[in-house]
Automatic annotation (TrEMBL):
It comes from the Eukaryota. The lineage of its organism: Eukaryota, Fungi, Dikarya, Ascomycota, Pezizomycotina. GO terms for molecular function: FAD binding; monooxygenase activity. Gene3D superfamilies: FAD/NAD(P)-binding domain. This is FAD-binding domain-containing protein.
Length: 470
Protein backbone atom coordinates (compact mmCIF):
# COMPACT_ATOMS: atom_id res chain seq x y z
CA UNK A 1 0.00 0.00 0.00
CA UNK A 2 1.35 3.43 -0.93
CA UNK A 3 2.11 5.88 1.82
CA UNK A 4 -0.45 8.69 2.27
CA UNK A 5 0.44 12.00 0.63
CA UNK A 6 0.64 13.80 3.98
CA UNK A 7 3.31 11.36 5.27
CA UNK A 8 5.76 11.21 2.38
CA UNK A 9 7.96 13.66 0.45
CA UNK A 10 7.13 14.66 -3.10
CA UNK A 11 9.22 12.60 -5.57
CA UNK A 12 10.37 13.90 -8.97
CA UNK A 13 11.80 11.52 -11.59
CA UNK A 14 14.18 13.43 -13.88
CA UNK A 15 14.88 11.72 -17.19
CA UNK A 16 18.16 12.95 -18.64
CA UNK A 17 21.40 14.06 -16.93
CA UNK A 18 21.52 17.08 -19.25
CA UNK A 19 22.26 20.68 -18.34
CA UNK A 20 18.53 21.16 -17.71
CA UNK A 21 18.15 17.92 -15.73
CA UNK A 22 21.21 18.41 -13.53
CA UNK A 23 20.32 22.06 -12.88
CA UNK A 24 16.83 21.04 -11.76
CA UNK A 25 18.37 18.48 -9.41
CA UNK A 26 20.62 21.14 -7.87
CA UNK A 27 17.62 23.47 -7.47
CA UNK A 28 15.65 20.75 -5.65
CA UNK A 29 18.50 19.79 -3.34
CA UNK A 30 17.83 20.69 0.30
CA UNK A 31 14.17 21.57 -0.41
CA UNK A 32 12.60 18.41 1.01
CA UNK A 33 11.64 17.28 -2.50
CA UNK A 34 13.12 13.91 -3.44
CA UNK A 35 14.43 13.26 -6.94
CA UNK A 36 15.89 10.44 -9.01
CA UNK A 37 17.83 11.02 -12.25
CA UNK A 38 17.77 8.38 -14.98
CA UNK A 39 20.35 8.73 -17.77
CA UNK A 40 20.59 6.55 -20.88
CA UNK A 41 24.35 7.11 -21.34
CA UNK A 42 27.07 5.16 -19.62
CA UNK A 43 29.40 8.18 -19.60
CA UNK A 44 28.72 11.31 -17.59
CA UNK A 45 31.08 13.45 -19.68
CA UNK A 46 29.94 13.20 -23.31
CA UNK A 47 31.89 14.87 -26.07
CA UNK A 48 30.54 18.15 -27.35
CA UNK A 49 31.54 21.56 -28.58
CA UNK A 50 31.52 24.83 -26.71
CA UNK A 51 28.71 26.91 -25.35
CA UNK A 52 28.27 30.32 -23.81
CA UNK A 53 27.01 31.05 -20.32
CA UNK A 54 25.13 34.36 -20.36
CA UNK A 55 24.17 36.38 -17.27
CA UNK A 56 20.68 34.81 -17.07
CA UNK A 57 22.23 31.38 -16.67
CA UNK A 58 25.23 32.59 -14.64
CA UNK A 59 23.09 34.13 -11.90
CA UNK A 60 21.28 30.84 -11.27
CA UNK A 61 24.57 28.92 -11.22
CA UNK A 62 25.83 31.52 -8.75
CA UNK A 63 22.83 30.96 -6.49
CA UNK A 64 23.53 27.22 -6.59
CA UNK A 65 27.16 27.74 -5.57
CA UNK A 66 28.50 26.54 -8.93
CA UNK A 67 29.48 29.79 -10.60
CA UNK A 68 33.02 30.06 -9.24
CA UNK A 69 33.85 26.65 -10.75
CA UNK A 70 32.40 27.77 -14.09
CA UNK A 71 34.35 31.03 -13.90
CA UNK A 72 37.58 29.23 -13.03
CA UNK A 73 37.28 26.73 -15.88
CA UNK A 74 35.72 29.05 -18.47
CA UNK A 75 36.96 32.05 -20.41
CA UNK A 76 35.44 35.52 -20.31
CA UNK A 77 34.50 36.95 -23.71
CA UNK A 78 36.93 39.69 -24.73
CA UNK A 79 35.44 40.67 -28.07
CA UNK A 80 32.83 39.73 -30.65
CA UNK A 81 33.67 40.20 -34.33
CA UNK A 82 31.37 39.78 -37.31
CA UNK A 83 32.81 38.95 -40.72
CA UNK A 84 31.77 38.16 -44.26
CA UNK A 85 33.07 34.98 -45.90
CA UNK A 86 35.39 37.14 -47.98
CA UNK A 87 37.30 38.17 -44.87
CA UNK A 88 35.74 41.63 -44.69
CA UNK A 89 35.15 42.84 -41.11
CA UNK A 90 31.64 44.16 -40.52
CA UNK A 91 31.92 45.01 -36.83
CA UNK A 92 34.05 44.33 -33.77
CA UNK A 93 32.59 44.87 -30.31
CA UNK A 94 34.74 44.85 -27.19
CA UNK A 95 33.03 43.23 -24.19
CA UNK A 96 33.85 46.22 -22.00
CA UNK A 97 31.72 48.48 -24.18
CA UNK A 98 28.52 46.47 -23.66
CA UNK A 99 26.86 48.37 -20.85
CA UNK A 100 24.34 45.65 -20.01
CA UNK A 101 27.20 43.28 -19.17
CA UNK A 102 28.68 45.84 -16.80
CA UNK A 103 25.32 46.23 -15.07
CA UNK A 104 24.71 42.51 -14.51
CA UNK A 105 28.12 41.91 -12.90
CA UNK A 106 28.43 38.73 -14.99
CA UNK A 107 30.63 38.39 -18.09
CA UNK A 108 29.82 36.26 -21.13
CA UNK A 109 31.64 32.99 -20.43
CA UNK A 110 32.96 30.52 -23.01
CA UNK A 111 33.05 26.95 -21.71
CA UNK A 112 32.86 23.46 -23.20
CA UNK A 113 29.65 21.50 -22.72
CA UNK A 114 31.71 18.63 -21.33
CA UNK A 115 33.25 20.89 -18.67
CA UNK A 116 29.91 22.38 -17.61
CA UNK A 117 28.29 18.94 -17.31
CA UNK A 118 31.30 17.81 -15.28
CA UNK A 119 30.83 20.68 -12.82
CA UNK A 120 27.10 20.01 -12.47
CA UNK A 121 27.69 16.29 -11.96
CA UNK A 122 30.64 16.54 -9.56
CA UNK A 123 28.82 18.86 -7.18
CA UNK A 124 25.64 16.73 -7.11
CA UNK A 125 24.69 13.93 -4.72
CA UNK A 126 25.58 11.23 -7.22
CA UNK A 127 23.85 8.37 -5.42
CA UNK A 128 20.61 9.72 -6.88
CA UNK A 129 21.84 9.51 -10.50
CA UNK A 130 21.62 6.22 -12.39
CA UNK A 131 23.42 5.64 -15.70
CA UNK A 132 22.57 3.05 -18.35
CA UNK A 133 18.87 3.58 -17.59
CA UNK A 134 17.32 4.24 -20.98
CA UNK A 135 13.63 5.03 -20.52
CA UNK A 136 11.28 3.12 -22.80
CA UNK A 137 7.84 3.62 -21.26
CA UNK A 138 6.05 5.93 -18.84
CA UNK A 139 2.73 5.00 -17.24
CA UNK A 140 0.67 7.71 -15.56
CA UNK A 141 -2.22 7.22 -13.17
CA UNK A 142 -4.24 9.63 -10.98
CA UNK A 143 -1.97 9.05 -7.97
CA UNK A 144 1.51 8.34 -9.39
CA UNK A 145 3.71 7.99 -12.47
CA UNK A 146 5.94 4.98 -13.17
CA UNK A 147 8.98 5.15 -15.42
CA UNK A 148 10.21 1.90 -17.01
CA UNK A 149 13.74 1.51 -18.37
CA UNK A 150 15.16 -0.90 -20.93
CA UNK A 151 16.91 -2.98 -18.25
CA UNK A 152 13.53 -4.02 -16.85
CA UNK A 153 13.63 -1.78 -13.79
CA UNK A 154 11.07 0.86 -12.89
CA UNK A 155 10.80 3.92 -10.64
CA UNK A 156 7.56 5.45 -9.34
CA UNK A 157 7.02 9.02 -8.25
CA UNK A 158 4.70 12.01 -8.37
CA UNK A 159 6.06 13.72 -11.49
CA UNK A 160 8.29 12.79 -14.43
CA UNK A 161 10.40 15.57 -15.95
CA UNK A 162 11.67 15.13 -19.49
CA UNK A 163 15.13 16.72 -19.65
CA UNK A 164 16.15 14.24 -22.32
CA UNK A 165 16.73 16.49 -25.31
CA UNK A 166 15.15 17.25 -28.62
CA UNK A 167 14.11 13.62 -29.27
CA UNK A 168 12.64 13.32 -25.78
CA UNK A 169 11.18 9.95 -24.86
CA UNK A 170 9.17 11.60 -22.09
CA UNK A 171 7.62 14.04 -24.56
CA UNK A 172 6.70 11.17 -26.90
CA UNK A 173 5.18 9.22 -24.03
CA UNK A 174 3.24 12.29 -22.91
CA UNK A 175 1.68 12.67 -26.36
CA UNK A 176 0.94 8.97 -26.43
CA UNK A 177 -1.10 9.40 -23.23
CA UNK A 178 -2.79 12.54 -24.57
CA UNK A 179 -3.89 10.73 -27.72
CA UNK A 180 -5.29 7.86 -25.63
CA UNK A 181 -7.43 10.24 -23.57
CA UNK A 182 -8.49 12.67 -26.31
CA UNK A 183 -9.81 12.15 -29.80
CA UNK A 184 -6.83 11.35 -32.01
CA UNK A 185 -8.47 13.27 -34.85
CA UNK A 186 -8.95 16.46 -32.84
CA UNK A 187 -7.90 19.60 -34.71
CA UNK A 188 -7.15 21.62 -31.57
CA UNK A 189 -3.55 22.81 -31.66
CA UNK A 190 -3.28 22.09 -27.93
CA UNK A 191 -3.79 18.40 -28.68
CA UNK A 192 -1.29 18.16 -31.55
CA UNK A 193 2.46 17.76 -31.10
CA UNK A 194 4.41 20.43 -32.98
CA UNK A 195 6.64 18.70 -35.56
CA UNK A 196 10.33 19.56 -35.54
CA UNK A 197 11.80 21.33 -38.54
CA UNK A 198 15.35 20.93 -39.83
CA UNK A 199 16.01 23.59 -42.43
CA UNK A 200 19.70 23.57 -41.49
CA UNK A 201 22.45 21.11 -40.72
CA UNK A 202 24.97 21.90 -38.03
CA UNK A 203 28.58 20.83 -37.76
CA UNK A 204 30.24 21.18 -34.35
CA UNK A 205 33.93 20.76 -33.64
CA UNK A 206 36.86 21.54 -31.38
CA UNK A 207 40.18 22.61 -32.91
CA UNK A 208 43.66 23.07 -31.55
CA UNK A 209 44.92 26.62 -31.03
CA UNK A 210 45.26 28.63 -34.24
CA UNK A 211 47.52 31.69 -34.68
CA UNK A 212 45.39 34.80 -35.02
CA UNK A 213 42.56 33.47 -32.84
CA UNK A 214 43.08 34.78 -29.32
CA UNK A 215 41.59 33.68 -26.01
CA UNK A 216 38.18 35.16 -25.28
CA UNK A 217 37.49 36.17 -28.87
CA UNK A 218 34.24 35.17 -30.58
CA UNK A 219 34.08 35.34 -34.38
CA UNK A 220 30.82 35.15 -36.34
CA UNK A 221 30.90 34.84 -40.14
CA UNK A 222 28.10 35.24 -42.69
CA UNK A 223 28.24 33.29 -45.94
CA UNK A 224 26.02 32.34 -48.87
CA UNK A 225 23.87 29.59 -47.37
CA UNK A 226 26.19 29.08 -44.40
CA UNK A 227 27.48 30.78 -41.27
CA UNK A 228 30.10 30.00 -38.65
CA UNK A 229 30.64 30.80 -34.99
CA UNK A 230 34.09 30.40 -33.42
CA UNK A 231 34.79 30.73 -29.68
CA UNK A 232 38.32 30.64 -28.26
CA UNK A 233 38.43 29.17 -24.76
CA UNK A 234 40.79 29.43 -21.81
CA UNK A 235 43.19 26.83 -23.25
CA UNK A 236 43.20 28.59 -26.64
CA UNK A 237 41.32 25.69 -28.16
CA UNK A 238 38.65 26.75 -30.63
CA UNK A 239 35.07 25.54 -30.26
CA UNK A 240 33.36 26.08 -33.58
CA UNK A 241 29.98 25.65 -35.18
CA UNK A 242 28.88 25.85 -38.83
CA UNK A 243 25.25 26.02 -39.94
CA UNK A 244 24.52 25.06 -43.55
CA UNK A 245 21.22 25.58 -45.31
CA UNK A 246 19.75 22.32 -46.55
CA UNK A 247 19.53 23.68 -50.09
CA UNK A 248 23.33 23.99 -50.12
CA UNK A 249 23.89 20.33 -49.27
CA UNK A 250 24.03 17.19 -51.43
CA UNK A 251 20.83 15.21 -51.67
CA UNK A 252 21.79 12.17 -49.60
CA UNK A 253 23.50 13.07 -46.34
CA UNK A 254 22.98 11.43 -42.95
CA UNK A 255 21.07 13.27 -40.26
CA UNK A 256 23.79 12.48 -37.73
CA UNK A 257 27.39 11.43 -38.29
CA UNK A 258 30.84 11.76 -36.78
CA UNK A 259 32.53 10.05 -39.73
CA UNK A 260 35.39 12.38 -40.67
CA UNK A 261 35.36 11.43 -44.36
CA UNK A 262 31.63 12.13 -44.66
CA UNK A 263 31.87 15.47 -42.85
CA UNK A 264 34.89 16.42 -45.00
CA UNK A 265 32.85 15.94 -48.19
CA UNK A 266 30.09 18.15 -46.83
CA UNK A 267 32.37 21.05 -45.81
CA UNK A 268 34.68 20.84 -48.84
CA UNK A 269 32.99 23.77 -50.68
CA UNK A 270 33.60 26.02 -47.66
CA UNK A 271 37.23 25.28 -46.83
CA UNK A 272 38.57 28.38 -48.60
CA UNK A 273 36.02 30.70 -47.01
CA UNK A 274 37.33 33.15 -44.46
CA UNK A 275 36.24 33.11 -40.82
CA UNK A 276 38.47 36.12 -40.06
CA UNK A 277 40.58 38.33 -42.30
CA UNK A 278 43.55 35.93 -42.18
CA UNK A 279 42.07 32.56 -41.10
CA UNK A 280 40.10 30.28 -43.39
CA UNK A 281 37.57 27.69 -42.34
CA UNK A 282 39.85 25.03 -43.81
CA UNK A 283 42.56 25.90 -41.27
CA UNK A 284 40.08 25.47 -38.44
CA UNK A 285 38.64 22.23 -39.80
CA UNK A 286 42.02 20.64 -40.52
CA UNK A 287 43.22 21.33 -36.97
CA UNK A 288 40.07 19.89 -35.39
CA UNK A 289 40.43 16.88 -33.12
CA UNK A 290 36.75 16.03 -33.38
CA UNK A 291 33.68 17.06 -35.33
CA UNK A 292 30.11 15.91 -35.69
CA UNK A 293 27.27 16.74 -38.07
CA UNK A 294 23.68 16.83 -36.85
CA UNK A 295 20.35 18.10 -38.09
CA UNK A 296 19.52 21.43 -36.47
CA UNK A 297 16.00 20.65 -35.36
CA UNK A 298 13.89 23.59 -34.23
CA UNK A 299 10.61 23.39 -32.39
CA UNK A 300 8.53 25.21 -29.81
CA UNK A 301 5.89 22.93 -28.35
CA UNK A 302 2.40 24.31 -27.67
CA UNK A 303 2.13 22.02 -24.69
CA UNK A 304 4.92 21.48 -22.14
CA UNK A 305 2.98 19.49 -19.56
CA UNK A 306 0.06 17.13 -19.15
CA UNK A 307 -1.11 15.15 -16.12
CA UNK A 308 2.11 14.04 -14.35
CA UNK A 309 4.38 14.77 -17.34
CA UNK A 310 6.43 17.91 -17.92
CA UNK A 311 9.32 18.80 -20.25
CA UNK A 312 12.14 21.31 -19.92
CA UNK A 313 15.01 22.46 -22.12
CA UNK A 314 15.36 21.14 -25.67
CA UNK A 315 12.52 18.68 -25.06
CA UNK A 316 10.02 21.55 -25.40
CA UNK A 317 11.89 24.58 -26.78
CA UNK A 318 14.69 23.54 -29.13
CA UNK A 319 16.27 26.60 -30.73
CA UNK A 320 19.17 27.17 -33.10
CA UNK A 321 22.51 27.75 -31.36
CA UNK A 322 23.30 31.07 -33.07
CA UNK A 323 22.21 33.29 -30.17
CA UNK A 324 23.69 30.97 -27.50
CA UNK A 325 20.48 30.89 -25.43
CA UNK A 326 19.74 27.15 -25.57
CA UNK A 327 21.66 26.15 -22.44
CA UNK A 328 20.78 29.36 -20.61
CA UNK A 329 17.05 28.96 -21.30
CA UNK A 330 17.30 25.36 -20.08
CA UNK A 331 18.90 26.57 -16.83
CA UNK A 332 16.17 29.19 -16.44
CA UNK A 333 13.34 26.73 -17.10
CA UNK A 334 14.79 24.28 -14.56
CA UNK A 335 15.01 26.99 -11.88
CA UNK A 336 11.52 28.26 -12.65
CA UNK A 337 10.01 24.75 -12.47
CA UNK A 338 11.78 24.16 -9.14
CA UNK A 339 10.23 27.38 -7.80
CA UNK A 340 6.74 26.19 -8.65
CA UNK A 341 7.37 22.71 -7.25
CA UNK A 342 8.56 24.12 -3.93
CA UNK A 343 5.47 26.36 -3.69
CA UNK A 344 3.25 23.41 -4.61
CA UNK A 345 4.69 21.16 -1.91
CA UNK A 346 4.66 23.89 0.72
CA UNK A 347 1.08 24.85 -0.15
CA UNK A 348 -0.54 21.58 0.90
CA UNK A 349 0.50 18.06 1.91
CA UNK A 350 -2.02 16.64 -0.58
CA UNK A 351 -0.31 16.01 -3.93
CA UNK A 352 -3.48 15.56 -5.95
CA UNK A 353 -3.34 15.39 -9.71
CA UNK A 354 -5.71 18.37 -10.07
CA UNK A 355 -3.44 20.58 -7.95
CA UNK A 356 -0.39 19.36 -9.87
CA UNK A 357 -1.96 20.07 -13.26
CA UNK A 358 -2.93 23.57 -12.13
CA UNK A 359 0.60 24.27 -10.88
CA UNK A 360 2.24 23.00 -14.08
CA UNK A 361 -0.10 25.11 -16.21
CA UNK A 362 0.84 28.21 -14.21
CA UNK A 363 4.54 27.42 -14.63
CA UNK A 364 4.16 26.80 -18.34
CA UNK A 365 2.30 30.06 -18.91
CA UNK A 366 4.90 32.00 -16.92
CA UNK A 367 7.80 30.67 -19.01
CA UNK A 368 6.39 30.64 -22.53
CA UNK A 369 6.31 34.37 -23.22
CA UNK A 370 10.01 34.94 -22.56
CA UNK A 371 11.17 31.68 -24.13
CA UNK A 372 9.05 32.10 -27.26
CA UNK A 373 10.60 35.51 -27.88
CA UNK A 374 14.11 34.07 -27.71
CA UNK A 375 13.05 31.16 -29.94
CA UNK A 376 11.79 33.56 -32.63
CA UNK A 377 15.00 35.60 -32.43
CA UNK A 378 17.05 32.42 -32.94
CA UNK A 379 14.89 31.48 -35.94
CA UNK A 380 15.42 34.86 -37.53
CA UNK A 381 19.12 34.98 -36.74
CA UNK A 382 20.09 31.68 -38.32
CA UNK A 383 18.05 32.38 -41.47
CA UNK A 384 19.51 35.84 -41.96
CA UNK A 385 23.08 34.76 -41.21
CA UNK A 386 22.99 31.78 -43.60
CA UNK A 387 20.64 33.15 -46.25
CA UNK A 388 20.96 32.42 -49.95
CA UNK A 389 18.72 35.36 -50.86
CA UNK A 390 20.41 38.58 -51.99
CA UNK A 391 17.45 40.48 -50.55
CA UNK A 392 17.86 39.06 -47.06
CA UNK A 393 21.60 39.72 -47.30
CA UNK A 394 20.73 43.37 -46.81
CA UNK A 395 19.82 42.45 -43.25
CA UNK A 396 23.24 40.95 -42.54
CA UNK A 397 25.06 44.27 -42.51
CA UNK A 398 22.24 45.80 -40.49
CA UNK A 399 22.43 43.04 -37.86
CA UNK A 400 26.22 43.28 -37.70
CA UNK A 401 26.01 46.97 -36.87
CA UNK A 402 23.44 46.20 -34.15
CA UNK A 403 25.38 43.39 -32.51
CA UNK A 404 26.45 45.55 -29.59
CA UNK A 405 22.81 46.35 -28.84
CA UNK A 406 21.73 42.79 -29.57
CA UNK A 407 24.28 41.22 -27.24
CA UNK A 408 23.30 43.73 -24.58
CA UNK A 409 19.61 42.91 -24.86
CA UNK A 410 20.14 39.15 -24.83
CA UNK A 411 22.41 39.33 -21.79
CA UNK A 412 20.29 41.73 -19.76
CA UNK A 413 18.78 40.50 -16.50
CA UNK A 414 15.24 41.78 -16.00
CA UNK A 415 12.40 41.09 -13.58
CA UNK A 416 11.19 38.39 -16.02
CA UNK A 417 14.50 36.50 -15.88
CA UNK A 418 14.09 33.35 -13.79
CA UNK A 419 16.07 32.76 -10.61
CA UNK A 420 15.88 30.32 -7.69
CA UNK A 421 13.31 31.92 -5.38
CA UNK A 422 14.17 29.90 -2.27
CA UNK A 423 17.87 30.82 -2.43
CA UNK A 424 19.33 34.28 -1.74
CA UNK A 425 20.42 36.44 -4.62
CA UNK A 426 24.20 36.61 -4.99
CA UNK A 427 25.73 40.01 -4.33
CA UNK A 428 28.60 40.40 -6.80
CA UNK A 429 31.04 43.23 -6.21
CA UNK A 430 29.40 43.98 -2.85
CA UNK A 431 26.20 45.21 -4.49
CA UNK A 432 23.13 45.40 -2.30
CA UNK A 433 19.95 43.47 -2.99
CA UNK A 434 18.13 46.78 -3.37
CA UNK A 435 20.59 47.92 -6.04
CA UNK A 436 20.23 44.62 -7.88
CA UNK A 437 16.44 44.94 -7.85
CA UNK A 438 16.70 48.47 -9.18
CA UNK A 439 18.97 47.20 -11.96
CA UNK A 440 16.38 44.62 -12.94
CA UNK A 441 13.52 47.12 -13.23
CA UNK A 442 15.78 49.68 -14.85
CA UNK A 443 16.84 47.10 -17.42
CA UNK A 444 13.22 46.24 -18.23
CA UNK A 445 12.43 49.78 -19.38
CA UNK A 446 15.81 50.33 -20.99
CA UNK A 447 15.59 47.02 -22.81
CA UNK A 448 12.04 47.65 -24.01
CA UNK A 449 12.93 51.10 -25.38
CA UNK A 450 16.07 49.82 -27.10
CA UNK A 451 14.31 46.74 -28.40
CA UNK A 452 11.40 48.60 -29.97
CA UNK A 453 13.20 50.00 -33.00
CA UNK A 454 15.48 46.98 -33.43
CA UNK A 455 12.72 44.39 -33.17
CA UNK A 456 10.34 46.37 -35.38
CA UNK A 457 12.90 46.89 -38.12
CA UNK A 458 14.29 43.35 -38.03
CA UNK A 459 10.97 41.53 -37.76
CA UNK A 460 9.24 43.64 -40.38
CA UNK A 461 12.11 43.40 -42.84
CA UNK A 462 12.61 39.68 -42.30
CA UNK A 463 9.01 38.56 -42.51
CA UNK A 464 7.98 40.90 -45.34
CA UNK A 465 11.00 40.08 -47.47
CA UNK A 466 10.68 36.39 -46.71
CA UNK A 467 7.02 36.47 -47.78
CA UNK A 468 7.94 38.21 -51.03
CA UNK A 469 10.44 35.48 -51.84
CA UNK A 470 8.05 32.55 -51.34
Amino acid sequence: MSEPNSRRPFHVIIVGASIAGLTLAHCLSNTGIEFTILEARSDTYPDGAGLVILPNGARILDQLGLYQDVLDQGQCMVSHSTWLGTGHLLRRVDAGRIRYLRRTDYPVLIISRRTLLGILYTRLQRSLLFFNRRVVRVVSSPDKVTVHSADGLSVSGDLVVGADGVHSTVRKQMWHHIRKVHDANSSSRWLIEVPLTDSFAGIFGVAQSIPGLDRGDIHRTYGHGWSTLLMVGADCRVSWFMSISRIMMPGLVPRHTSDRACVSRIVEPFLEKHVTSNVTFGEVFNRSDSCIMVSLEEGFQNRWSWSRFVGIGDAVHKMAPNIAEGANCAIESAASLANHLVSFVNGSPLYTEDRLISMLKAWEDSRKRRTRGLFIISQCAIRIEATTSWVLKLLQAFLAQCHETGIGLLTSITSRTARVDHLPLPLPQQSSAHQLLNKEHENVWSMQLSLLSLATATSLMFYVLHALLL
